[in-house]
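ok so i was messing around last nite and threw this chain in just to see what happens. nothing serious, just curious
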Amino acid sequence: MDPITIAMTAFAAIKTGVKLGKDTQSMMKDVGAMWGAIDEVRGQHKKKKASPFTSASEEALETFAALKKADDLEENLKKIVIQTRGFYAWEELLKLRGQIKRERIEAEKARRAKMQQRIEIAAAVALFVLLLVCMIWGVWMFLT
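result:
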């Protein structure tokens, strides 16, 4: 599923939850899914804008509508949260979102660093084996 569809589905679940009187905590999964999808839409839009292979009109047609829809969904979520829980609840959600984003970025950095370390170790082992094989071959050639 594309990210904007995920965001719309999550928003519909949030809206339904509010109508049914669910508390904010029980809808956090849907809020997280919606914000994750919105962030993905924004990331795709930035990536397209930076791509040298797409023209400005192609980029606008492909991602602009999704970006605006994502912005509208986020604005509607803001209105719902403020109407049902107040402005401070929205501010708290934004702080939580920022914290989760930072944690995800740190986790991704750690994953990349670990992968880089594994690559370096594999390259060192491969180089060692290659040098060992060359030495054995050289000794064998010298003795024969």
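not much to say yet. Residues 41 and 69 are 10 Å apart (CA to CA).
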